[in-house]
Amino acid sequence: MKSRKSKSRKRPAKPTKAKAKKAGKSAKRAPRPIELYYWPTPNGWKVSMMLEECKLPYVLKPVNIGKGEQFEPGFLKIAPNNRMPAIVDPDGPGGKPISVFESGAILQYLGRKTGKFYPADERKRVEVDEWLFWQMAGLGPMTGQASHFRNYAKKEDNAYALERYTNEVHRLLGVMNKRLATRQYLAGSYSIADMACWGWVKAINGMMSGFLAEFPNVKAWLERIGARPATEKGFKLGRELRKQAANDPKAEEERRKILFGQRART
Length: 266
Prior knowledge:
disordered N terminus, alpha+beta, Glutaredoxin, four-stranded mixed β-sheet, 7% strand, Glutathione S-transferase Yfyf (Class Pi), Chain A, domain 2, 266 residues, 53% helix
């Protein structure tokens, strides 16, 4: 009689330390929310649009610039220029937190982090950077000055400044209109350069009624980007906070003192 060999059941292999460590890392890969220090302005919209486009988790940290919250010590550690927007990414380079201030720098950082809307190819990246810095150095500051002299400055002896900055905004829109005559977006494909410019053109359209009629390519571009779901979400972010602040007429004079005429704080 043949003896039956006992069939030994295979026990599941114990996970090695390397596998256990790898599994632990995989469990921690869910990104932590980026902290967005923000107020609903053209500079703020740049970053909220980018975060929405990239589907990055983020948590809103309102910075009420009309109340002077941009001068609080905690915020100045993140943004020493006392201007929003700024971000803190808890999952920065090497898995360590990083803070970034200045809207253009934030867009570039998020573009590198995600690989979206900021091409890796050097020639294409240079093209995006050209139009990003065109906005940072020209479209934004000139539109801001035009807005100031239209909406905030005393009307007396204001004609020269108003004409100066309105004309420069007009010139810049002409540059943009020519650029968009042969392409849908400033650098060919939709990029952080378009996100940087969109809020300022949106502001111009609201501030100078009918101004864009002279620039049909810019107008079509504005509508094209405005139709994107991420633009709609980014543009709406924090809108109710601004409405609440605007509905307090007693605070208007205080807002002016905080927003304009600041000198160095030692």
